Amino acid sequence: MQAAEAVSMLNQCCVDIARVRSRRETLALLGRSNRALAMSLLFMGCLYAHADSGRHWQPGGGYVQFGAGENDVRATTAGLAWPWRNWARDSGGLQFSGSWDLYGLQVRSRARDGGKLDTLVLGLSPMLRATPAAAGQEHWFIEGGVGLAVSDGPYASGDRFFSTRFNFVTSVGAGWVWGRSHEVSLRIAHASNAGIRRPNPGENLLQLRYLHRWGE
């Protein structure tokens, strides 16, 4: 699939979502705190459907993730993982592989006025993974990556306030794969704008992820 085709696919997904958003009776069935996450799930499901015609662009699996941070921050994530199908390296008894993670993250935090704040974050991260070179169906892995994320509005957590909607997200994690189709991992994520603008307090999340691989 060429770049122009990929852009066309994304545009069509946005059109499909706009059609759904125009149906107020559909969104009315969703609680306000769940709309953001529902829209991100819709976007990723639509993207998967349009990618079905090109195997190279078809996601390798989907995941859900739950996280927590300081100041009573809670986060729920739904995402898709695209493996780098034509890239792998062996070194020092380890095999290195990679994937793209596309996700929608809904963060519930405490606003500056003391109320609850729901923030939607859409992100894309390249992830590098290391596993034992002679791994079977069950094996451990470690992985990490740095990606970009954009929120639908200013994010605050207690007395901390983010000055930018665009931020960098650094993630590291370790987990276990079993039965070829299942994996669970514990991860730490840090979000900040790398000092591009002040204030830049940063946010840390401890996350638990379950991923199911398709076609295995």
Written description of the protein model:
- The protein is an alpha+beta fold and 216 residues long.
- The chain has one domain (59-213): Porin, CATH 2.40.160.
- The chain contains three helices and eleven strands, in the order αααβββββββββββ.
- An eight-stranded antiparallel β-barrel has the order 1-2-4-5-6-9-10-11.
- A hairpin with a 2-residue loop joins strand 3 (89-91) and strand 4.
- It is elongated.
- Residues 20-33 have low confidence and may be disordered.
Features:
Porin; alpha+beta; 216 residues; 3 helices
Q: Could you please say which CATH topology applies here?
A: Porin
- From the spread of the alpha carbons, the general shape counts as elongated
Structural class: alpha+beta
What is the topology, as strand order, of the major beta sheet?
Answer: 1-2-4-5-6-9-10-11
**What is the CATH architecture descriptor?**
Beta Barrel
Give the low-confidence spans: 20-33
Provide the helix percentage.
10-25%
Integer tally of domains: 1
Q: What's the overall average pLDDT, rounded?
A: 80
By CATH reckoning, the class would read: Mainly Beta
N/C terminus separation: 23 Å
DSSP strand count: 11
Gyration radius from CA atoms, angstroms: 18 Å
* Main sheet record: 8 strands, antiparallel, barrel
List SSEs in N-to-C order: HHHEEEEEEEEEEE
Q: In what range is the share of β-strand residues?
A: over 45%
**Number of helices, where a helix is a run of at least 4 consecutive DSSP H or I residues:** 3
